[in-house]
Amino acid sequence: MNSTIYKKKSPLAVFLIPAFLFMALFLYYPFAMNIYNSFCNITGLGTAAEGFNSPWYLNYGKLFQDPIMNTALFNTMLLMILTIIFQVGIALLLALLIDNIKKGTQFFRTVYFFPIVISATALGLLFNLIFLYDGGMVNQLLLKFGVTDMIDWKDEAHFLFTMMTPVMWQYVGFYFVIIVTGLNNISPDIYEAAEIDGASGFNRVRYISLPLLHNVLITCLILAVTGALKVFDLPWVMMGAGMPMDQSWLTGTYMYNQTFTMGDVDYGSTIAIVIVVIGVVVSQAANRIFKEKDY
Amino acid sequence: MRTADTREPARPHGVRRRVQPGKVLIYLVLSFWAVTTVYPFLWVIMNSFKVKGLIRSDSFSVPTGDSFTLDNYKTAFDRVDISGAYKNSLVISAAVTVVVVLLAGFAAYGMARYQFRGRNALHSLIIASMMFPVFSTIIPVFRMMFGWHIVNTNSVALSQLSVILPQIAGNLSFAIVVLMGFIRGLPIDLEEAAYLEGYNIYQIFFKVIVPIAKPSFATVAIFTFLWSYNDLFTQMFFLRYKDAFTITRLLNEITSIAGVNYGLMAAAVVLVVVPVLVVYVFLQKNIIKGMTAGAIKG
Amino acid sequence: MKRITAFILTMALGSAMLAGCQSTPAASQAASQAPSSEAAKPVEITVVTSYGGDDGNRANYEAAYKAYETATGNTVKDASGTSNEEWKAKIMADFETGAEPDVLFYFNGVDANKLVQGGKVVSIDEIRKTYPDYASNMTDDRLGASPADGKNYSVPVNGYWEGLFINKKVLKDCGVEVPGADYTWDQFLKDCETIKSKGITPIACSLQEVPHYWFEYCIFNHGTPATHPKLPASSTDEVGKAWAEGLNDIKTLYTKGYFPKNTTTATDAETFQLMADDKAAFAIDGSWKIGWFQENAKSIDDFTVTYVPGENGRKSTDIIGGLSMGYYITQKAWSDPAKQKACVDFVKAMTTDEVVSTFGATAVTALKNGTIAKSDTDSLEQAAMAMTKGATGITPATQDGLIQTARTALFADIKNIATGKTTAEKAIDACLAIKS
């Protein structure tokens, strides 16, 4: 970026200050409170700290000995990997396919957006009815095929599939919209030029679309990583408090559970910090590996 | 939605104007995914017209005859002042969307185009704030705003403000990250051309960047609007009195207890979702318009 | 690495900033209004209750406060919500910042300890010095004294009981008698075995989500109404042993296969659906569940409610029940001469015999004269009323004495005790070790 336009730095203040002022007041300051809280002893949400923990790093010690935290981290990492492969992967595939057709694009774009719009409570209810042990849709189908031994979709053998599938499915549309927007930013002239050079189909995707989508894909990657760490509502509605037998915790649901249902606010704050630290480290690593290109 | 392909160069082999097997496959794949996304929506709509109690025993059938009912909607309309709640939702979400798109556009442009010390630190801060769980920031925010005397007041406008402010902050980081990705992908030539024409930096932003990246801004606007609209948690915390309730908050009130009346819940979901879809489709059209408007004329 | 360092530095800066912000004493900013000249002038009082949204009593509550508005000319600014952890958190945050309501309908157990200890609410004795007939229609030792100092602060409306809900149709099909007041634990186990052998789930309960009621009664079965509310100091003292034995009773029920097959993965809603679908025979739940049966049962006459079978020192007719919530007047409103009388009148109006009776006629009550019976009760409500009338002892739930963190931790461990992942003693000690 060696353009002379951006040598003069004074407009930067105008560009950056308003947004960062908002974030400082409503995000960084409260989160700093959160860091402070993680060293304190707080007996209920909405109540003030009753002084520091002794030792002050008590919660951090607890974190490393907490088997449930290990489960939550493991599941979240798994979710992150699956998210990148499936959510972003399927979204990219669909976006590229849509780019190749003329009829019905408007329709597909609208319906792919549906899952993001419907509230997680409703989707949770829907998936619960699909996977219900006693009379759920899948088990009813199995009955029709003569399977008499009902599958408990939330038991220890099946819960990962039952929990991950809806989460995967719900956010494909989200990445799809972002990628399609990125494709739209590619000027038609470039394709026309390519077409004249005889590049079409796969080559067009490989040599034009993907390289030009590079930055958008990096964005998706970062969103996928941060999203996986925070994911909360659908798993919470479907799997409740870590069912089965505390196996399905994620960092997001565990933090919520500690803060709200357990009322252990300081430990909840500690988990929140872990979420943020991991997210920053992983997304920075991703950024390094896939170095953003500036034009 | 590209407008190319009007003149196809002749190819050495293969006859045009025939159904290509490739296209069929593409449509099959796309339609399959469409089925998975449309079905839940249909399911919710269907169940919102079902007689209470049928949903669990028979939730995957079409409501006809005896099982068809409008009761769920009647109940919803009887209990609450829906139009007022829509208005409140619209005010809050529209305000949040406008401010977020403007400020995030500014910040993303600054971050994408300028090299300055501390840029990486700022970038990390933005990423970090995307993950701050709202559960852990809400109480300090509540106390801070109480100090400003804008929460727990009788005024509807102040109640709305107390939801708008934290929501703006909460959506900014996401919007900045996405817009940065888009702006980085824009070729810089246009800006340089405009600069040579004698545009100043703000004119470049408004007259070059915004028009080219209109679809990106629209996308961010859609997501922001949607999240603000559906963000129950913040609304629960700051909206105390009925006259300031948003539609999401209001319908949650109806469906929160006992949770056995699935039909009512489905009706509530439909009432919440339909306006959003209308907004989305409307904005979609705009994106298309934005597409056809090409680059600026120097 | 440079970026991480930068990030940490920024965070450190943030903390430094925060140290500067620490000095705003939020609680001291309680806005005190100037006393008005005339006490008779209509005032607006703010009220927070748990009668929000779709609460079964929402309509009763609205009717009652509207009647008060008409009678006094005062207006009620109602900010009721749904009773859950977020609602509690919001209320606590309000008190912390000095934004509390004038009148609060809230829990009277350990949940309110902070309000009592912080002097945020006014005791009934204090109010009676000025208004001698305050809560005079109630029996004082039933008001639900605060565990913090044993004094009464809140005036209850309707209480709750916990009992054994029974699907009579299932029992008939299995050839099992409908239990009565002299039903014992051993008979209950025999019946469960019979029902199980017919291929039906004996007990509808989700150990994953709501083991609360079985926990309560299984422990009660190793104590008496007098000892039951006491908390153990360790798993080896007398109460601790009772707890361990009770928890092991749950384990027995689990290993014999009396719970649903998916009891560790089912939700409470799913297990109760078994009752409605005639796939389960017994369930323990509270008085608030009656509405669920009225809503979901094919025929309400297929269901009844009775005493939970007892053993050892507990008679089957000793029940768990009490009054867990009540109206508080906050110190802030009490010390405001303009509002004081309006608040007192409000609580009085909300707790008259007539109003309390509309809020659930089957429930336990603190009214001296008892509730006025409704005329159109169904068979389940009648069974419930007969049960509370015939009770030989009523004792509050022991779990209400535990702080939230400890209680949740213990209930999360019940599935682990049942499946043998941990022992009852370990779980009890872990729960008691949680002090905050």
Report on this model:
- The complex is a heterotrimer of chains A (295), B (298) and C (436).
- Chain A is 71% helix and 0% strand.
- Chain A is mainly alpha-helical and 295 residues long.
- With 298 residues, chain B is an all-alpha fold.
- In chain B, α1 runs antiparallel to α13 and α10 (214-230) runs antiparallel to α13 (262-292).
- In chain C, the strands form two sheets. In chain C, strands 5, 6, 7, 8, 9 and 11 form a six-stranded mixed β-sheet that branches. A five-stranded mixed β-sheet of chain C has the order 2-1-3-10-4.
- Chain C is 42% helix and 12% strand.
- In chain C, β1, α2 and β2 form a beta-alpha-beta unit.
- Chains in contact: A-B, A-C, B-C.
- Chains A and B meet through α1, α3, α4, α5 and α6 of A and α1, α2, α4, α5 and α6 of B.
The strand count of chain B comes to: 0
Radius of gyration of chain B: 24 Å
Counting DSSP H or I runs of 4 or more residues, the number of helices of chain A is 13
What helical percentage do the residues of chain B reach? over 70%
Uncertain ranges of chain A = none
Summed up:
The complex is a heterotrimer of chains A (295), B (298) and C (436). By secondary structure, chain A is an all-alpha fold.
Give a topology summary.
The complex is a heterotrimer of chains A (295), B (298) and C (436).
Chain A lengths: L10 H27 L20 H8 L1 H32 L6 H8 L1 H4 L2 H12 L5 H8 L14 H27 L2 H9 L4 H30 L2 H7 L11 H11 L3 H25 L6
Helix pairs in contact in A: 3-8, 3-10, 6-11, 8-10, 8-11, 10-13, 12-13
Chain B lengths: L20 H28 L5 H4 L13 H9 L2 H32 L5 H12 L3 H14 L8 H29 L4 H8 L4 H12 L1 H17 L1 H7 L8 H9 L6 H31 L6
Helix pairs in contact in B: 1-13, 3-13, 4-7, 4-10, 5-7, 6-11, 7-10, 8-9, 10-13, 12-13
Chain C lengths: L1 H20 L22 E5 L9 H15 L2 E4 L6 H13 L5 E5 L5 H5 L6 H7 L24 E2 L3 E8 H7 L10 H13 L3 E3 L8 H9 L17 H18 L12 H9 L3 E7 L3 H7 L6 E4 L11 E5 L2 E5 L1 H4 L2 H14 L2 H6 L20 H11 L3 E3 L8 H15 L5 H10 L3
Parallel strand pairs in C: 1-2, 1-3, 6-7, 9-11
Antiparallel strand pairs in C: 3-10, 4-10, 5-7, 5-8, 5-9
Helix pairs in contact in C: 2-13, 8-9, 16-17
Name the descriptors:
heterotrimer, A: 295 residues, 13 helices, C: 436 residues, alpha/beta, 6-stranded mixed β-sheet, 5-stranded mixed β-sheet, 17 helices
